[in-house]
Amino acid sequence: MTTSQGSRVLDYPSVYQLRQLIQSSQTNVVFAISTSRSTPSPYGDLKEELKLGAMLQITSLEADASNLVSVIRSSYDNITQEIRLTPDKELPQVTFAYSDAENCRLSGNGAVCSDITLNSSVSLVVTVNMTSCLPNITTVNLRSAAFGAVTLELVPLCQCDCSLEQEPNASQCSGAGNLTCGVCHCNEGRSGSQCECEDQTTNTCKTEEVTEECSGRKRGECDCGQCACYVQDQLLRTRNMTKLYFGEQCQCDHLTSCGGINDQGQLCSGRGTCDCPSGKCVCSATGPISGRLYTGDLCECNPDACFNTDYPNRTCAFTGSLGSLGDAECGCNTCLCDFNGNNAVPAGDGTCSPGPPPCSRREQCARCAKNLQSSSTDCNQLRRDEGCDPILLTGDASLPDTRNLECTFQADGCTHTFYVSLSHQTVYVEPGEDCGGQENEINNLIWIIPVSVIGALLFLGLLALLVILFIFWALPFSGHRCTSNQTADCLSGLENPVAAPPQIVKEEPFGETVQISPQEIRLNLRTGEPQTFTLSVKPARNYPLDMYFLMDLSGSQAPDLDSLKDLSNSITDELEQISSQFTLGFGSFVDKIAYPFASTLRNGSDYLTRHLGNMVTECANGRASCGPTYVYRHHLPLTNDSGQLREVLENVTIRGNLDAPEATLEALLQSVVCLDEVGWRNGSLRIVMILTDAGFKTALDGRVAALVTRNDGECHLELEEGFYDYSRGPEQDFPSIYQVREKLIENDIITIFAVQEDVVRERTVTDDVVYRELAEEIGSSRAFVQTIAEDSADIVSVIRRAYESVTRDIVVDSVSGLTIGIAPVLNCTLTSDGRGCANVAIEDLVSFNVTVTMDQCLKDMQTRLLPLPGFGNVELTLVPICECNCTSQMTANHMSCNGTGSLVCGICECSGVSVFGDQCDCGRQLQRCPDDCFNRGTCNNCSEECTSCFTQQDTIGQIVGSFGARCQCDNSTGAGACPVGRDIDQVCSGRGECVCDGEKCDCDCKCGTAPLSGDRYLEDDCGCDPDNCYNEQYPGRECAYSRDKGGNEGRDGECDCNRCDCPRDDAVPYNRTCINTDELCDKFESCAKCWPNNCTSGDCSPKGLDELTSDGVLVSCTFEREGCIVDFQVVLSGDFNTMGSVFVGEERDCQESDILGQLVWIIPVSIIGGIILLGVLLLVVAKCILMAVERKEYRKFLDDMHHGDFVPVETGFNIIICLDWASIYALATDATASAFATLLDSYDVYIIPFSSQHSNPLYVTPQTEYKNPILEKSDEAEEDY
Prior knowledge:
Blueprint: H1 15-25, E1 29-34, H2 43-50, E2 56-61, H3 68-80, E3 83-84, E4 86-87, E5 94-102, E6 105-107, E7 112-114, E8 123-130, E9 138-144, E10 148-154, E11 177-180, E12 183-186, E13 190-191, E14 197-198, E15 220-223, E16 226-229, H4 234-238, E17 245-246, E18 252-253, E19 272-275, E20 280-283, E21 317-318, E22 329-330, E23 335-336, E24 344-346, E25 351-354, H5 358-361, H6 363-369, H7 379-386, E26 391-392, E27 404-411, E28 414-421, E29 427-429, H8 441-448, H9 456-474, E30 503-506, E31 516-517, E32 520-525, E33 531-537, E34 545-552, H10 558-566, H11 568-578, E35 582-589, E36 632-639, H12 642-650, H13 664-673, H14 675-678, E37 685-692, E38 717-720, E39 723-726, H15 737-746, E40 749-756, H16 757-761, H17 771-778, E41 783-788, H18 795-808, E42 810-811, E43 818-826, E44 836-837, E45 846-854, E46 862-868, E47 872-880, E48 890-891, E49 901-904, E50 907-910, E51 915-916, E52 922-923, E53 937-939, E54 946-949, E55 951-953, E56 959-963, E57 969-970, E58 992-997, E59 1002-1007, E60 1054-1055, E61 1060-1061, E62 1067-1070, ...
Helix pairs in contact: 11-18, 13-15
Membrane topology: Single-pass type I membrane protein
InterPro entries: EGF_integrin_1, Integrin_bsu, Integrin_bsu_VWA, Integrin_dom_sf, vWFA_dom_sf
Organism: Geodia barretti (Barrett's horny sponge)
């Protein structure tokens, strides 16, 4: 600032400035602190902040400075015992490394040589490394505070000297070009790496069929108009191949052409040549015996396999009894002796000899396909010896040719069909079988389905599918006939649109403003069908950068503002090193001018004001006052003039507000949506850096100040006095995080939250969200968090770190309605979330495949942007394929529909109600099936038989629904169904088979046998288990009596369905036996004697008799203890009463207990408890009476106000009302507002609102429609008031 006399008064230096000055001047500083100080010394904290090591020392000085000489000596010794080398300037392109040498022990960061003694020689090695090229020769001094400096002259070597030397028409350039730095620059009319090629009139490197030179860069290079194909990869090199690609345009390769190479690295089995470009083998080798050429697609068929020297000039001659048949055909390496149905087999010597018929010879091979082979057949042995490898004709598989012999075999009462190829002996097996009638189908289904692993959900889905199919079959079809992209067994003419591959619309080369290729792509999409294209990204070194600084100017930010002013030139220097095409701008924010966010008092006045912009308040950091607060102010549009930033910062002042969270998100939203005012450029990296030390407010926080209007997310900046101010702050609520996120994505802007370490971890007053969580909500590719020093002194390094964090990873953002997938191709390491490539360096080329899937069909063609934050966008033109073109084409009385229906999209629509079927080949009768399957089953289209009845599996595993030949039976309501177990919630208790009679419409359980006793389970639900009455200690006996060891006295109990019934009075059921009660008491006596000592006996833990429960079999027992009788009860519980609980009573027949002694403590406790209870009741009654009285008086007050019954005592009567903010808001919006308005018109009313946060009342203006006597009073009236 400047005083009235014109002298300049400077502020104190910052810690950062002090550290820079000490290091640059290499001055050692010693703080000698007097011991007479009564307050703690701050110099220890200062030393930690300066981080100067031995260059700064703190020592104690006596009150009378008597030890000053010793302090000087000790400080000098400390300084000279350490050598610290420090460069006098920062060079980002250069790093210094230090290593030990002679008498030097490095410490700290490696630049400190400690424990130095006087008169000793010290050496250390300094390594200088230039990471990027310096612009020119640079001088740097390595200084040591106590020992001087070393001056280094750094001469960068960034280009070769040979560029100045040129050899014209050099021999290395075929005498037709100049040689510069080992590279030929050819004369006009010559080309090639050595200028060896003359301009060609014809170029064979590409043709009309091969549009790319040499079939693409990966296959070869065009040299002098001819392709030089690339040699093999490592795999082919191990197979002794000479080239991977071949052909005139390198269009053929040794991996796919002509079937690819074999294990010996040969094409065409080494018996021919591969014709390029047809890709077919031309066989040239001949059999040594027959002299005929090898045949087959890969020249793999030996003609000698069909030739026998005993039968010259013949092929596969029949011998023996078949000699009159002549010759058979020659297959691949075998004779086709079975052709035309001859019962002959290849003899293995080029002839055909009599043999079994083909069907019987290959039957076991066909059985192996269905695991129906005989016990003596080994399928693996058949596969090895006879080449048995049957093919199951499932799905769309069909017979490859017509030379097949149809055969059958019988298994399990069913007929199975298979085919034997007469061309190559391959066996084809039909998947189904013919098992005769359908009478037992439902009965088989009932016991097969419960053992299925699919369970209840599958049957519910199957039932729903059957209902849907029935509806579609029964009702006429009027919708679209489009199908999915899956193949189906349909009539010819079915339309299945196929999406065309992606088309590249725009592909510009990489440059300073282009980082993505291609830039525009056209995609033809079907729902659920992915489309994949390759995307390449090359981060540019000098990409345009727009950096907008958005600073919190609340009172606590004063040190940060000072640092920003001091470092403004360093900031622009750092941005210029990042990109010479940079622009920077500046904006600031504080909070809304509304209580309780900011004060609404005008400085020095008790009057309410209508001009809220003139409000001031006391600063939070102790300053006398701050400037008027505001929500957001845009000071400097984006510009490349670094001087303007310094000028703007000099005129910026700190503002004041009341609470900690600020209007951060509202200011961020305005800086993002006001594109023209801020000056965002197209084709640049847009970054907003927010500098703050407090939390943020978000949507609904404005309701505290009665701001209920939703933030509209639009730009509302108005130009005033050279800067833009946000005009809707007093009217709208704060924006939501979702609004901010959407606008950042829409305008392709990235935000950096530069906050202090404590703010990163704290939680704001109004939200649970911290800045790292806020960044996650906005998106990891759109928002980043960087920690900054308390006074923002490290802002320059924060800018560098922020830029590196933005450009380090290439991330593909999501697009609405599309599913995006990423797969690496070149130099791409997937990020942790799989959405892009991590750790990408500048100018590194990265490629990855992007897979786009349309979730739901779009209505029409649309253009979407695929964002890559920090690198640009890819424009996607989406062309949806949602309709078939065949719906408008109908052929009436089509032959495929037997002339009785129209063919629409490959599906028959039958004419009339009397014709039905997939091909309109069935006649519809009055009832298509007997009783129409009672609407409980599926009727065959033509056979008029019920093919399957509707069933389902209920929650207990029982198959319920319809059964019977005509689906006439139904057990879904419980009638005729197999019973569920009484104890086990399963059909037939899970111990038997449910067998249904389709004629009687009834189902019964067929019970199995128990494993221990071998007896059958009993009752109609198989719920009675005979093993529950069987104990292995008593073999062959049910419910054995424990004292009858042999079972000869007939005193055993009876089994009553899962439990023993013991008729004897001295026996109870226990562990599947009838145990004698005396034995039971003896068994548990040791457990009872542990009571009340809290001991345990085995697994038994006794309890008091007062805890006795009656659940179980109760047995009374006694034992003696010290002359007293003790009663205890044994309660048997658990499965088969295997668990015994013991409850022990008190001793009896002993001396009487002292009841009076017990009453000594019971009576006082009862009296005290009664008094406390009575007091609580009295308080409750008094509170209720008081609330009733207050409620009555309040209602009377409201009625008086409503009816206007207030009578003034005298003219000019003044009323003073003190209300809190909530009451004022309720009064202004409640039904009593009209009565209150009458009161204001009749009297001088003073409203004094108050807040719990402030001791003094705050004056506010009432609603505008009310009379406001406060603003109309004169000074005299105010004094009277």
